[in-house]
Amino acid sequence: MEGLLFGTAGVPISSNGTDSLSGIKRVHELGLGCMELEFVRGVKMGKETARKVSVLAKKLDIGLSVHAPYYINLNGEGETRLKSRERILNSARIGHICGARSVIIHAGFIEKDSRHDAYEKIKNELILICEEMNTEGLNITLRIETMGRNSQFGNLDEVLTITEVAGVLPCIDFSHLHALNGKNNSKEEFAGILTDIENKLGRDGLNNMHVHVSGIEYSPKGETKHLEFEASDFKYKELAKAFSEFDIKGMVICESPNLEIDALKLKKEFDDLTCCK
Question: Smallest Cα–Cα separation from 5: which of 274, 267, 269?
């Protein structure tokens, strides 16, 4: 993947319309390079619309990803697990038609299991999902997101280790990692995360990243809610420095409430650093 693209989690606020096609057009007008299609309340996009999304995104050279529904728990029991599997597959099916590169997943909760046992159950579910995706010819990557609460599956080690499943890569949410313990908020700490990624996945891991970022409010239990950068203690300028020094490539999706405003702020920080190299 060439370069680092910045974009929004869903349709920009300043878009004339609230639909995905309007959002892609507005992302392009703003000078951003990507957008995440938010299927978080369910996969409601049809195949015809997905084909139109694909054509427009290719025409305007906008990278796409999709975020699978929040209602997923691959460590759940019975029907919960089966419905979670199908929600991920439906996200992949429509995402594939859209031409999206990745499906972002909140994999589940630890529940009453040990983290090891939860890991094994989630891993086995992902193997089944990837096998079905291969059978259907779905050319899209599953990405497990780092999460902002210890009750959830998805610390940094877990999302890196689970790449042992072919077809699975991480989605690194730097704000969630900060919210876990109030740390991971300096250039040196961000660099440590990027070093861990490179140690596990090689340079290819840094050349094909998917990142989430926002301002963040947190408590001793972890993430509380997303904030705008300026209303948060999250040091996005330090993150831009780490991105530049490691020369990462891929997609950076801003989830701040003001979406494109913070996406453009982070892009400017990164671009200013890159042009001075």
Answer: 267
Question: Which tokens is 268 given?
Answer: 């400017």
Q: What is the pLDDT of residues 44-79, one digit of tens each?
A: 999 999 999 999 999 999 999 999 999 999 999 999
Token pair for 142: 């599953």
Sign of the alpha-carbon dihedral angle for 145, 189, 165, 63: positive
| Residue in the structure block whose two tokens are 């950068």 | 229
| Helical segments of 31-114, H only | 47-60, 78-98
Residue 108: DSSP 8-state: -
* Lookup: tokens for 116: 């090891």
Residue 218 has pLDDT above 90, yes or no: yes
C-alpha angle 217-218-222 in degrees, rounded to nearest 5: 145
CB 70 within 8 A of CB 40: yes
Cβ–Cβ under 8 Å, residues 190 and 147: no
pTM recorded for the entire structure: 0.96
* Cβ contacts of 273 within 8 Å, gap of 6 or more: 240, 241, 244
With beta carbons less than 8 A apart as the criterion, state whether 210 and 171 touch: yes
Which residues contact residue 61 at a Cβ distance below 8 angstroms, ignoring those fewer than 6 apart?
A: 28, 33
d(Cα 35, Cα 22) in Å, to the nearest integer?
Answer: 11
Give how far the C-alpha of residue 123 lies from the chain's centroid of Cα atoms, to the nearest Å.
19
